[in-house]
Amino acid sequence: MASKRDGKAASFVRLASDIWAFQTTAVLAAALELDVFSAIGSGKRTSVEIASATNSQVRGMERLLDTLTSLKYLKKTHNRYGLEPIAATFLVRESPMYMEGASQVIRGMTMLWSTLADAVKAGASLAGPVSEDQARAFFPILVKQIFPMNYTASQSAIRKMPKARLSRIQRILDIGGGAAAWSIPFAENLRKARATLIDYPEMTAIAREYAARFKVGDRFDFLEGNFFEIDWGSEQFDLAILGHIVHGEGVERAKQLMRRACIALKPGGILLIADFIPNENRTGPALALMFGLNMFVATPEGGVYTMGEYRAWLKEAGFKRVTTVAANAPSPLILAHK
Ligand SMILES: C[S@@+](CC[C@H](N)C(=O)[O-])C[C@H]1O[C@@H](n2cnc3c(N)ncnc32)[C@H](O)[C@@H]1O
Asked: Which of 2, 107, 305, 318 makes a 20 to 30 Å CA pair with 295?
């Protein structure tokens, strides 16, 4: 039997890679801050060219580029670097799917996560209540960063929804819509559909820009302000969307959003919820659990909820049936049918 001292009892390699996992984040953050991927995208290929284009010294740049190659964001042939598809799609400034603002988001998250042990001791985030001003300063950066992930997930959900069901969608309500990542693909696919996006004015300005970029701007309306204070109307919408909204709220406010979405939907309408969903035991998947900790460390009440909790709350809110659809997203998407 393996003893605790012979090294077989546990894998040191696994422990080491977990302990050093922050280094992967730091490598990506540095490359994004220096705009290394855009430099390569614009034709710089050698470490000398890339260092010069990013105002850096060759010595550190070579190490950074080789590490990015080992992480499969770059490829290297005869001392010339190229972009792997994941980098070309999401990390190059000129790409329509560019994850803008990622290095800023990483910097903020790193600071918050350094308070984790103290927050656990205290039983609450040390950041204190998130004021409306703080939210309105933070979300313009975040919504651009998460746009590619959510736009792609929305597209994949649309591909999986029955055509007959999709064709009945004429009015869409995107609650806390951010850059409109979820509603733009519906507007692109359903040429007669109109979307109403609710968010603070800092975000509706971004949504306007993105909707215009994707050539669906003429079919978007905006309600600006706090979605808890705005009237969403009753029985007006065929599809309501809560895209990464529920995790920002505590249980009571999350339930309130589901109730109000149900009221806003026409009979037969659908509420789409996208979020990180842990299993019923809350033992996995790790990404969902990590995100739950993220909300713990960053907000007073936010968290992640299980399918069991969602099903109970959606039923309580008035929905008749709850289904899920596997999408290109961290967790399956929830469809609640009125
Ligand atoms: C995590 S982002 C999600 C954005 C978008 N739904 C997506 O999935 O890409 C949360 C969004 O909800 C908005 N939001 C949060 N609380 C809000 C409130 N009380 N009133 C209006 N908007 C709010 C934020 O401004 C932000 O755009």
From this structure: 318
Whether residues 137 and 240 share a domain: the answer is yes
Same domain, 81 and 203: no
**143: CB partners within 8 A, 6+ apart:** 178, 179, 181, 203, 206
In this structure, the number of other CB atoms found within 10 A of the CB of residue 155 comes to 18
The stretch 190-195 carries a mean pLDDT of 97
Give the mutation target among 239, 245, 333 for probing the ligand 1 site: most ligand atoms within 8 A of CB. Answer: 245
Residues 21, 119, single domain; the answer is no
What's the CATH number where 21 sits? 1.10.10.10
Q: Whose CA is nearest to atom 13 of ligand 1?
A: 176
**1 has pLDDT over 50:** no
> Does residue 278 register a pLDDT over 90?
yes
**CATH at residue 222:** 3.40.50.150
Per the structure, the count of domains in the chain is 2
What does the alpha-carbon distance between residue 319 and residue 268 come to, in Å, rounded to a whole number? Answer: 9
- Tell me how far the alpha carbon of residue 245 lies from the centroid of ligand 1, in angstroms: 6
Amino acid at 195: A
226 within ligand 1 shell (Cβ under 6 A): yes
Residues 50 and 46: their CA atoms lie apart, in Å, by 6
Is the model's pLDDT at 5 over the cut of 80?
no
**Ligand 1 mutation pick, 99, 214, 227, 275, max ligand atoms within 8 A of CB:** 227
